[in-house]
Structures are given as structure tokens and as C-alpha cells.
Specification:
globular; three-stranded antiparallel beta sheet; binds nitromethyldethia coenzyme A; binds D-malate; 20 helices; 60% helix
């Protein structure tokens, strides 16, 4: 057993009795109640999911295993001379709750390297995707095609003990994560760079290798590390994480679950918002003919979008009630490296103009920007000008958190998810009786 798997096995042995006791001794304790508002309102805020991997505070933002993002970026080990930490280190933290040592990271880099060979048929799936397929559709199909490699599926059909489900899920997760940077980068090269594949460099880390296979020189490796870490997890209730959990709760393997996760992320109210933000900003940029709009022109542009019955992409959030710290970290990065970039200036203006307008309109509960309001301009600055690709990178990052969650779901033997539904007439009846 590798040191990481060994550590995980020990943690699982500690956690299992704790959770069993918690449930056994408190099975009737009330945590939340489901009101009609929550029932018809997309279960907003309903406390009905569990994860120990991350927690989203409405005011503070995300914590991974108890650490804020600034703490994560400070504490996790970095490649020599780099500003951004190893993505491998983040995965180690999400999985074990511990900050890894340099040695732990080099073991994990090695593990990923051994598992990184992408089968030929995956490239063929990408090559033969119907023309005009969105990159997220192609990513989902590529991941789905790997289903035949599942170790979990094999062991399950051989008749494995349920206490060992996590073990083969861990194998599947590492096998998939090791391949994702190359799959994503190849989708990019196939769609936008005449299909010219760049072979992986076995000496590089997760983020560094992705940048290399995209064909973009340094410091894009730093951007990739930052991007994957920022997008890795956002507790369990968001559509992508919840979908991954839900699908895997049927004991569907990691390939089925992560492919489904990708499909959820591909919606414009979720991860696809990063692409929408760039389409939206570029429509104004093109109209302005290279000039920065005045404050009045920018305000008009925002109001025109709202008055057309559309949302302002990249603004608002179901849980957050302040500026997303993931936005702030990207803003700080941009102020350091691209403060004179024209598109950054658009984003900067929107940061000042949109929240008061959304507040004046009085609908959005959170008028502040989320992660997607910022990520695209950084990508544009470093040469990834194809907006439709941005959510693919979100998906690579998100897979790290969702895989860690699914491994723990299996370890703690969380059951198949199956809430109860009612008809609307039954709800009217319940209310009448009250
Ligand atoms: N622009 C215009 N209207 C908005 C916005 C916005 N950015 N955000 C919320 N509203 C509206 C919303 O459509 C709803 O209108 P109505 O009453 O007519 O149905 C009303 O304000 C109340 O919505 P909230 O309770 O504030 O937001 P909710 O929790 O339902 O939705 C989002 C959260 C994120 C889906 C929503 O804020 C939104 O559509 N934002 C724009 C898309 C976006 O940036 N999504 C990315 C989220 C982050 N991610 O990566 O997933
Ligand atoms: C996410 O990162 O998943 C988004 O911010 C959406 C959410 O948390 O609801």
C-alpha cells in the first residue's frame, strides 16, 4: 500500500466508529426543517448533506479542511521558485485533512505519473466527437468512455466486501485524476490548435504539465495551479458536487459520477458562467472599438442586460453574501500581473458598478461577484482566448474535490440518496390541515 493510501486507511478506521456513534445516539435530533419556501426554492439553504472536506461560510467563503484560501496558498508546498502551490498537495489535504510534506507530494506526483497514460480510444472519442460539440460535452464523453477501466466495477462484480468499497474507488479516482490534465489539454489542442497534441512531460507536476500540454509558456503553469486549486471544492450542495455524490451513491463508479458532474457544471447558472462572462464582456468590448467605456456607458450596458430579462453573469451566489474570496484572489493576482490589461479594466469597472445596480434592482440576494466573474480575463491575458474552453478547466479542478468526497462517501458507507417527493396538491392539503 502506498503511504497516502495507508494514511487514508488509518483515518477511515478512526472516522467510522465516530460517525456510527453520532448517528446511533442522535438519530432523532433535528438539524433543519423543510419549509414550503425551501421545497419550491431549489432546497436553498436546507441543511441535508454532509461533507468534512470543505465548508462554505456565507460571509467568509470557502474553507478546505478548515483552512481559508489565503492559508491554503501559504501553507501548501510549492515547486521550486513557484508562487502557486502544487495541485497534488491540495488533493492530499482534501483527502487526509493534513498539510503534506515535500516527500508526501513527491510520492503523489509519482503515483499520478504511473497512472497517467491515456488509452488510445479516449483520443479517438475526442477526435470523433460530432462537429460543433461543446468542449464540456467532449470532456464528459471522454471521461464516460473510461468507464470500462473501473477497478471498482470489476471488484464489485467479483463480490467485494462493502467495507472495502473505498479502496477501489480510491484506485479509480487516482487513475482518472492522473489522466484529466492530458484529456483536457488534448480537447483544447484538437478544437483550437489543429489537433496537434503535445506529449506530457513526466518531470512536471499536475499544473505544470497541463500548461505544457496546452502549449502555453510560463508563467501559465502558475495560473493553472491557482485555477485548479481555487475551483476544487465548494462544499456539497452546488450542482456539480451534488451530482457527483448523487450518481455515485447508486454505486456508479467514478467515471460515471465525474462525467455526470461535468454535465451539471456545464450549465450557465453554474460553471459555464465563466464562459458567459467573457462572451458578455467581449460584446461590449467589441462595441467600444478598443476604448474603455465611461462609467455611464458601463452602467447602461448592465441595465440593458437586466432589462432584457437576463442575469449578470459572474454575479450573485446561492450561499455567499459577500465578494467570493476566489474572486478576490484572482483580483489580487491580476492587480499584480495584468493591471494595465484592457479586459481587466472592464472587470475592474464592473466590480465597482454591478453591485450597486443589483442592489437597486432589489432581486439578487447577493450582489457581489463570484469566482466566474474573474477567471476568464486571466485566461485571455495568457492566450487562452477560446471562451468555450474555460469550464473544462473548472471541471478538472472540481474533479479533485468531488473524487475526494466520493472516496469518503464510500469509506463511511453513506447510503444511496433517495429523498421523498410529494405532489403539489398534497402540499396544499398539509397546509390546509395545519
Ligand atoms: N443578475 C440578475 N439577477 C440575478 C442575479 C444576477 N447575477 N443573481 C440573482 N438574480 C435574481 C435571480 O434570477 C432571482 O430572480 P427571480 O426572483 O426573478 O427568479 C432573484 O435574483 C433571486 O435570486 P437569488 O436568491 O439571489 O439567487 P439564487 O440562489 O436563486 O441563484 C445564482 C444563484 C448564482 C444562480 C444567481 O445569482 C445567478 O444566476 N447568477 C448569475 C450566473 C452566475 O454567475 N453563476 C455562477 C455561480 C458560481 N458558479 O461557479 O457556479
Ligand atoms: C461552485 O463553486 O460550485 C459555485 O460557486 C456554486 C455554488 O457553490 O453554489
Amino acid at each position: 500500500m502506498t503511504p497516502l493510501k495507508q494514511k487514508l486507511a488509518e483515518k477511515i478506521d478512526q472516522e467510522r466508529p465516530r460517525i456510527r456513534k453520532l448517528v446511533k445516539e442522535n438519530c432523532d435530533a433535528v438539524i433543519d426543517t423543510c419549509t414550503v419556501d425551501k421545497l419550491f426554492g431549489g432546497m436553498r439553504g436546507l441543511k441535508c448533506l454532509i461533507t468534512d472536506i470543505s465548508y462554505l461560510d456565507p460571509e467568509e467563503g470557502i474553507r478546505y479542511r478548515g483552512y481559508t484560501l489565503p492559508e491554503i496558498f501559504k501553507k501548501l508546498p510549492k515547486p521550486k521558485g513557484a508562487e502557486m502551490p502544487y495541485v497534488e498537495g491540495l488533493f492530499y489535504l482534501l483527502l487526509t485533512g493534513e498539510i503534506p510534506s515535500e516527500e508526501d507530494i513527491s510520492d503523489l506526483i509519482d503515483e499520478f505519473r504511473k497512472r497517467s497514460t491515456v488509452p488510445r480510444y479516449v483520443f479517438e472519442v475526442i477526435d470523433h466527437a460530432p462537429s460543433l460539440s461543446h468542449p464540456m460535452t467532449i470532456l464528459s464523453m471522454a471521461i464516460l468512455s473510461l468507464h470500462r477501466e473501473s477497478v471498482f466495477d470489476l471488484k464489485y462484480h467479483e463480490g467485494v466486501n462493502k467495507l472495502d468499497y473505498w479502496d477501489s474507488t480510491y484506485e479509480d479516482s487516482l487513475n482518472l485524476l492522473a489522466k484529466l490534465p492530458e484529456i483536457a489539454a488534448y480537447i483544447y489542442r484538437k478544437l483550437y490548435k489543429e489537433g496537434k497534441r503535445i506529449q506530457p512531460n513526466p518531470d512536471l507536476d499536475f499544473g505544470g504539465n497541463f500548461a505544457h500540454m496546452m502549449g502555453i509558456p510560463k508563467p501559465y503553469d502558475e495560473v493553472s495551479r491557482m485555477y485548479f486549486i481555487l475551483h476544487a471544492d465548494h462544499e456539497s450542495g452546488n450542482v456539480s458536487a451534488h451530482t457527483g455524490h448523487l450518481v455515485s451513491s447508486a454505486l456508479s463508479d467514478i467515471y460515471l459520477a465525474i462525467s455526470a458532474m461535468v454535465n451539471g457544471l456545464a450549465g450557465p447558472l453554474h460553471g459555464l458562467a465563466n464562459q458567459e462572462v467573457l462572451h458578455w464582456i467581449m460584446s461590449l468590448h467589441d462595441k467600444m472599438d478598443g476604448k474603455l467605456p465611461t462609467e455611464a456607458e458601463m452602467k447602461q450596458f448592465v441595465w440593458d442586460t437586466l432589462n432584457a430579462g437576463q442575469v449578470i453573469p459572474g454575479y450573485g451566489h446561492a450561499v455567499l453574501r459577500k465578494t467570493d474570496p476566489r474572486y478576490m484572489m484572482q483580483r489580487e493576482f491580476s492587480l499584480k500581473y495584468l493591471k494595465d490589461d484592457m479586459l481587466f479594466k472592464f472587470v475592474d469597472m464592473l466590480y465597482k458598478i454591478v453591485p450597486p445596480i443589483l442592489t437597486e434592482q432589489g432581486k439578487a440576494k447577493n450582489p457581489w461577484p463570484n469566482v466566474d466573474a474573474h477567471s476568464g480575463v486571466i485566461q485571455m491575458y495568457y492566450g487562452v482566448t477560446e471562451h468555450d474552453f474555460y469550464t473544462v478547466m473548472f471541471a478538472v479542478g472540481r474533479a479533485l474535490g468531488v473524487c475526494a468526497n466520493i472516496i469518503w462517501d464510500r469509506a463511511l458507507l453513506y447510503p444511496i440518496e433517495r429523498p421523498k417527493s410529494l405532489t403539489s396538491a398534497m402540499i396544499e392539503d398539509i397546509i390546509k390541515k395545519k
